[in-house]
Write a structure and sequence with these properties.
single chain; 292 residues; globular
Length: 292
């Protein structure tokens, strides 16, 4: 992976390593549907006027069908599933389950028959990364039921398929426009519920968590994510989910004084090694008649 790719990868690992904690804090006081509305509406309101001034609105409106589908499978449905699940399971377990996104993406790539297939080294990297994530956070299913776990796994399918849809149907559109339209579509879909279920009072901790989810994890996160897709491809871009549990735990150690466990000592190097192997570009054979 290029130097720019690693920079984007590192930035996105940090930005998307904190949402599980922020969601866990927020859902104690805010309903999932309202949280999604509050997470998507502010950045949409900031970005849509910019899209109009740039003259990009017309191109987006002509592609409204794939935009709605992309918004549903990448944002609206997965975010609801994850947020509902975190009412009943820990943020660490959620992060571990989301770490399976690259594996799902790899299976989708192979099933579609395109050229974004993984060689043996990349497959090995995927499994090493998943093992490392398991060692990092453990599988703490105490008090958890099958339903919230199934919700997160279903959300993972959406996360894996979304980048592929973007790459095939929306990559010619401006990234800023796709972000703004997707957030606006999701905010409009959740507005009827979100506006009628606003809490009368929330703590400062919950309020700042919503701000972080909206402006950092959502608005800034998608900008970096699309740049990473352009740099390394849709499947390899999802390997960032291996590092998310590591980031969450490291923030806990440095900011909250949480213990440095054996699982962290063993798992973090495996996450890094798996990410390196899985994101390394594959050497594809030259096709007959193709330029050398």
């Amino acid at each position: 992976m290029s130097r720019r790719g690693w920079i984007l990868f590192g930035a996105l690992s940090l930005i998307w390593g904190i949402p599980y904690l922020l969601i866990r804090i927020s859902v104690r006081e805010i309903t999932p549907g309202t949280l999604i509305f509050l997470r998507t509406a502010p950045p949409a309101l900031l970005l849509i006027p910019l899209i109009v001034r740039r003259g990009e609105l017309g191109a987006l409106l002509r592609r409204w069908r794939p935009l709605i589908v992309y918004s549903a499978i990448e944002i609206a449905v997965p975010w609801l599933l994850v947020t509902k699940a975190e009412e009943r399971i820990t943020s660490s377990l959620t992060g571990l389950l989301i770490a399976g996104v690259p594996l799902i993406g790899a299976f989708l790539a192979r099933a579609s028959g395109d050229e974004d297939r993984f060689d043996r080294r990349q497959w090995l990297g995927l499994f090493i990364g998943l093992l490392g994530a398991a060692l990092l956070v453990g599988i703490d299913v105490k008090g958890a039921t099958a339903l919230p776990i199934a919700m997160v796994l279903l959300a993972s399918v959406g996360y894996a398929f979304g980048p592929r849809l973007f790459s095939r149907r929306l990559s010619d559109l401006p990234n800023l426009g796709v972000v703004a339209a997707s957030l606006a579509i999701t905010a409009i879909a959740y507005a009827p519920f979100g506006l009628t279920h606003l809490p009368s009072h929330v703590s400062a901790e919950a309020a700042w968590s919503v701000v972080g989810l909206s402006l950092v994890c959502t608005a800034a996160g998608f900008f970096v994510f699309f740049g990473l897709i352009d740099e390394v491809g849709p499947v390899r871009a999802t390997v960032v989910t291996y590092v998310n549990p590591a980031v969450a735990l490291m923030l806990g150690i440095t900011l909250l004084g949480e213990p440095f466990t054996l699982g962290i000592a063993l798992g973090f190097p495996l996450v890094v090694l798996g990410s390196v192997l899985a994101t390394r570009r594959q050497e594809l054979p030259t096709r007959p008649g193709a330029p050398v």
